[in-house]
Description:
By secondary structure, the protein is an alpha+beta fold. It has helices spanning 2-18, 31-54, 59-90, 94-104, 137-144, 148-153, 161-166, 185-196, and strands at residues 111-113, 172-176, 200-202, 208-211.
Amino acid sequence: AALLFIALFFVAVLEIRFVHPYPAVWLHNYGLWSLSAAAILASLPAALSSLFARARISALTRAILPVTLSAIAMLFLLPKIVTLLVFAQGTTGTYWMSQRALVARMRPTDTVWMSSRFHPITVRDANHYWFGFDSGLLGVVNELRQTARGREYLSPIEPLPICASLRGRSTVRFVSAPKPVAGMESEIRCFAELQASRRVQHTGIPQVYEILPQHPAGGRVVF
C-alpha cells in the first residue's frame, strides 16, 4: 500500500506540472499530491519497523523501535497540537476571535454560507457548493449543468441558502454579503429583500451577517 501511495505521489507531481496550468495553480490542484504525501508519512513508522524487523538486531531493539518511532512522530506533530490547543484559544487575531464568537452563537442545526475568510471550520455549510461563494465557480457549474454530462454528474445549485431563507426553507444562520460574481445574482437580490424586511443584522464581524427568523401571522416561528 505504501508503494502505491509513493507512485501516486510522483504521478500527482507530473499532473501538477504538465496537466494543471502550472505555475498558475490553485491550492486545490495540490489535493491529490497532499493526500498521497500524508499517506506516505502515516505509513512511515510501520514501514521502518518492518524494515528493522528484517534486519539483524536484537529482540529488545525490535520491541522498542515501534514505540520510539511513534514518539518521534509525535514530537514532529507537537508544535501543531500546541498551536491548536493553546495559541488558537487565546489569540486575539481577527479570524480566531470571529470563529469563536460565531460558533458560540450557533445551534446544532444551524449552517453557514459565507466567504472562507471568516468561515468557522467546525460548522456545516448550507450548500454543497460552498467553495463557489466568492470565486465565481457557481456560474461555471451552472453553465456545465446546461450540458447532458453536467446534468448527469453535477448536483443542482438551487435552492441557494439566502433565497431559501427568504422563503423560510433554510437552516442558514450566518452569511456573508454575496459578492457580484457569476452565479450569485439571485442571492444578491434575496439578500437585499432580507435587508428591506429587516431580517438581516450585522454581527460585528466584517462582512458577516445573521439572518433573523421569520415571524409570520399566527406567531409560528419559521427558520
